[in-house]
TrEMBL record:
Source organism: Chenopodium quinoa
Family: Belongs to the iron/ascorbate-dependent oxidoreductase family.
Keywords attached to this entry: Iron, Metal-binding, Oxidoreductase
Name of protein: Fe2OG dioxygenase domain-containing protein
Pfam families: 2OG-FeII_Oxy, DIOX_N
Length: 356
């Protein structure tokens, strides 16, 4: 995909990194990050995440009916859940966090070796289109890598420092590929469609994003990540602190960090493939006054050349297709450069059909 116009030249990179800004600004946050009127409060409903939105993957994969019903209900109402018993060791998840934190603590010149002019590969601050005047910037820096198939991404974006980064992230990629396959199968089972309806082997891609959200002197006016929907089938999130929030029926809810569990949200491509049965979750990340936050997200998505449309088995006379056919690359361009505040790329592909 061509580099969007919003990328600044390499020379300007260091000065726009949020980590750098955070070290120097005290409480004078640059205007472009400030939401002057603040943003809506969130609720903390702990029981949600220990009950109806906590999925046990081992039960799900063994065909446990109650768990399948719970999974379907979580995805058709919230579009997200926490997953436990997913097969990845808690101690290994901690290693992934640790090595990612070590990367972000390297000197800026070292990290900048992994800058690329493709906004979905390598190290940079969060790319928000600056041509749209009212667009506020997100308070985070990130490293994008393609986990699967690895050679479809830019291999130069893979850090050589810390020295064990590649080894650990390669291992994590294998675990994520396995988990993604388990979740694809579970999603198909829960919809009573062919097991390989969603499938990594065909044109699946897993893009990972390592994000550092520095601590922020104005957490009531600055967002780590503005409300958005993901351009993925689903996204798997590993984080070392709270900060992620999801929206349901206009209300924001905090997502807790439960050691060993991972957060999964459906994205726009998942909503389209399921013809709207499973929802893409609106989410945001808030900032924290005293602590920074590290997350590793894995976007389970499709190759940029793929054309997406609802799965034929999920289109019926009673439920006609709710989305136009579109190419993944067209959607990505829409996300980066066309959507203004409050607009979402998926709106451009929705068809207006009343549900019968
Ligand atoms: C994202 C995202 C959540 C997080 O990268 O799209 O929403 O917790 N990340 O960092
Ligand atoms: Ni997201």
């Amino acid at each position: 995909m061509a580099a969007p116009v919003c990328c600044l030249p390499n020379d300007d990179l260091a000065s726009r990194l949020v980590q750098k800004i955070a070290q120097t600004v005290q409480d004078k946050i640059p205007e472009q990050f400030l939401h002057k009127d603040g943003f809506p409060e969130s609720k903390d409903v702990a029981e949600l995440w220990t009950d109806s939105l906590l999925i046990d993957l081992s039960l799900l994969s063994s065909g446990d009916q109650d768990e399948i019903v719970k999974f379907r209900s979580a995805l058709s109402t919230w579009g997200c859940f926490l997953v436990k018993n997913h097969g990845i060791e808690g101690s290994f998840l901690e290693e992934v966090i640790e090595v990612s934190r070590k990367f972000f603590s390297l000197p800026f010149e070292e990290k900048m070796k992994y800058y690329t002019d493709d906004i979905f590969q390598g190290y940079d601050t969060d790319a928000v289109c600056q041509g749209l005047d009212q667009q506020k910037m997100n308070w985070n820096d990130r490293l994008f890598l393609t986990m699967y198939p690895k050679n479809k991404g830019n291999l130069k974006a893979w850090p050589e420092n810390p020295s064990n980064f590649r080894e650990i992230v390669d291992e994590y990629s294998k675990e994520i590929i396995n988990l993604a396959q388990g979740l694809y199968k579970a999603a198909a089972k829960s919809l009573n469609i062919k097991e390989d309806s969603f499938c990594l082997e065909k044109e699946g891609v897993i893009l990972s994003r390592f994000t550092l959200y520095p601590k922020c002197p104005r957490p009531k006016n600055v967002l780590g990540s503005k409300p958005h929907l993901d351009g993925s089938i689903f996204t798997i999130v590993l984080a070392d602190r709270e900060g992620l929030e999801v929206q349901k029926d206009g209300q924001w809810f905090k997502v807790p960090v439960i050691p060993g569990a991972l957060f999964v949200n459906f994205g726009d491509f998942g909503e389209v493939l399921t013809n709207g049965i499973y929802k893409s979750t609106m989410h945001r990340v808030v900032t924290n006054l005293t602590k920074d936050r590290l997350s590793v997200t894995a976007f389970c998505t499709m190759d940029a050349t793929e054309e997406l449309t609802p799965l034929t088995e999920l289109v019926t006379p009673n439920r006609p297709s709710l989305y136009k056919k579109f190419k993944v690359c067209e959607y990505k361009e829409g996300v980066c450069c066309k959507c203004g505040p409050g607009e979402n790329a998926i709106d451009a592909i929705k068809l207006e059909f009343p549900l019968l």
